[in-house]
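Section handout 9: paired folding examples.
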Amino acid sequence: MTDRSTAVGNDDGSLRDARAELERPPSSNVDDAETTLLELFGGRYALTREIGRGGMARERFLREIEIAARLRHPHIVPRYDSGDAAGVLFFIMPFAEGPSLRARIAEGLLAIAEVVPLLRDITRALHFAHEHGVVHRDIKPDNVMLSGGAAVDADFGIAKAVRVAQGSGATAGLTQTGTGIGTPAYMAPEQAIGDPSTDHRADIYSFGCLAYELPTGKPPFQGQSAHQIIAAHMSAVPVSVASIRSDSPPAIAALVMRCLEKDPTDRPQSSADVVTMLEGAVGLAMYEPNA
């Protein structure tokens, strides 16, 4: 990245340049916003183009900035700077050279030897976020970038920071007020219905959906409407990965299906558990004869 390669961004995590992402007040016009930012940057950055435009409420934007500032990890795209320029909220993040995981999937099925390290990268990022009290709530291929052969999560835009429980005998944990926020094809059943007990295990379910799609080319449930997809998450059992992709290591196929359990108590109980399982499978996948 160079100092003078910043682009205005959007709300779906798809930005590629070191960027200034704007949340403009309704009365602002584009030229005024860009002028304000250029003055603020003082020549340190150049606005080369607008890639898209977001629709986040100010409160959500401010929350994202606060959350993202805490997450510094090799597999999470960092935020370099943020602020409020005359009512125009912005943040700056680095340019990611590679495509999104969604674009890579569109090119064709991934080799198993490619799938497992990518899943490991994603779970490491989730583990770090969960340790810092952050539930992502929108794990999907669109929000993962491929950079330097590794996977990096580019969007904690609807993540919700949660506070460590206080009081005598309390233990650190993750809790949050549930709302049906997310993407239907990757949404845990409890998240879809806005269950107030929804926690980090919803991310493990969403990871399972993504992990299902990488070797098979499609998420576990598809439908004509969001309602149909959510209904499937609630009650249908997906076709096993192993039956679609025979060269999948049994341990990986079993882990994916376990992550997709309807009841959160039947899933791996932490992203650390998933990391450990994937770590043990990496060497196996690299030597799969049909990979």
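Moving on to protein 2 of 2.
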Amino acid sequence: MDVLLREVHRRSDGRTEYIDTEIGADPFTFGAAPENSLQLLGSGIHARLGTIVGNTLECLGAAQIVHNGERTSKATLAIGDEVEIDGHRLRVIDAPAGFDLALELERDTGLDPSAYEAAFRTDLEQTWLRKRRPAVYLLLFVLVLGLLVPYALRKLDVDGPLLPTDVMWSSGPLLPAHRLAIGDDCSRCHAQSFVMVRDEACRECHDVVADHFHRALADVDAIERCASCHREHNEPATLVVTADALCTDCHATRQ
């Protein structure tokens, strides 16, 4: 579309000057960024504020203008209408032959220089993006991909090179001896979904192993299960814990 932009300048001697500029753009854009068809600076104007297509002015995101005294984000322009954009005033005038639209612009001359500091910053709220909705969608996507899909494939016994599997849930490799014994069959130890490995699963293979401590000398309540001390899926790959915490966790009050 071909737009005639007529800028109005009020001189100190009271005289008025008009500067006409021919702009060809489809759509006609306005905002703080220099690549816009009409560049307007101010504290409330971000990089791309809105567009004009035909006789329809539409703001982007949560931005708004004042059209004939009413605040709105979309307006149908007619000859004589006045649009205020953060102190700048646009009036729709009769377009000469060869132009689709003619606008008379009177810029805000009372802007403080500090207002220009934020002219090129665009907040997320000033665009079509929102924080809450994408966050909820992303959370649902992660839950479906990371939990429901592997769970369903496990139940259906479906496997494939491009499909998510139980490996997505693993925090590290198995102890080599365990991997040799059970391979990739997670259910051999993880008998119930979303339940930590219980002692019964350990004793299916280690049925002849006796307790490693004298129960009268240890805080039995602090030892919930075999995996409290023998932690799998951790590196270095060893189940024999040598850290002092193995003793002090239970004997912290012993003299």
